[in-house]
Design goal:
Length: about 250
């Protein structure tokens, strides 16, 4: 499930890059660049033609066009192999290879744990991935936690938290005082971080891959008791250095 999440995020990067002329086309041999453009244009024309047809009347032509799409996909994959050899930089952006779990672990800096979130309609899943240096023999390298909150309810909590931060900033109220900021920050910490607290405790730093509304959540401002209920509450960023990424592959 974690690898599927990584693959979808890598594809999202490809989609964004495809909407902009940000690729290293100068690195490609001219004939390869022309063939790439020709395949892409032919694929778009074929898809557009299929969309215009009526399955009840034009099924034979639709079948022929679907076969043509399969041929174009095969040609595109063959060309991708050529491009990976001719221009590794271009291929890394145009044909990104999503990392599997082992690849993600190898990429993480020593002493880093990755918290990767997937927000669903009714539940949120948290994947906690340890770096190779943080995993002992016989210990699982990844753990998954099901958090009982969906996108709509989570959005409401994040919005409330951001509003409280803005209001307190304008009022000048000392952050050390008990306040709605602490209440809401603690609620979100307990919801999103506490399930993986034992895994987060040992590493030196935390790498966060948010999802959906969590991209707008200031994780550093969450407030918790990292050492247990009897410990002094502190901001998440006081406990661990935090970093945010789109995905491990990106």
């Amino acid at each position: 499930a974690f690898e599927i999440l990584e693959r979808s995020r890598a594809r999202s990067l490809l989609t964004m890059l495809g909407e902009r002329d940000l690729l290293f086309t100068a690195d490609l041999p001219p004939d390869v660049a022309r063939e790439r453009q020709s395949i892409a244009a032919d694929y778009d024309r074929t898809q557009a033609r299929i969309a215009q047809l009526n399955p009840g009347k034009d099924q034979k032509e639709i079948d022929a066009l679907l076969a043509r799409l399969r041929q174009l996909r095969d040609a595109r994959e063959s060309l991708a192999q050529q491009i990976r050899k001719a221009s590794p930089r271009f291929a890394a952006l145009q044909y990104p290879q999503p990392l599997d779990l082992a690849g993600v672990q190898a990429t993480l800096d020593p002493g880093t744990v990755l918290l990767s979130y997937a927000v669903g309609e009714e539940r949120t899943t948290l994947f906690a991935v340890k770096s190779n240096s943080s995993t002992t023999v016989g210990e699982p390298s990844v753990a998954a936690f099901s958090i009982p909150i969906g996108e709509e309810a989570l959005r409401a909590q994040v919005t409330t938290f951001r509003r409280v931060i803005e209001q307190q900033s304008r009022s000048g109220e000392p952050r050390s005082n008990p306040s709605p900021l602490r209440e809401q920050g603690t609620r979100l910490f307990n919801l999103l971080i506490t399930p993986a607290r034992q895994i987060v405790a040992a590493p030196d730093r935390v790498l966060i891959a948010p999802d959906g509304v969590l991209h707008s959540l200031p994780f550093a401002a969450l407030i918790g008791n990292p050492e247990g209920p009897a410990s002094q509450p502190q901001y998440f960023t006081e406990w661990k250095p935090l970093h945010t990424i789109v995905s491990a592959t990106v």
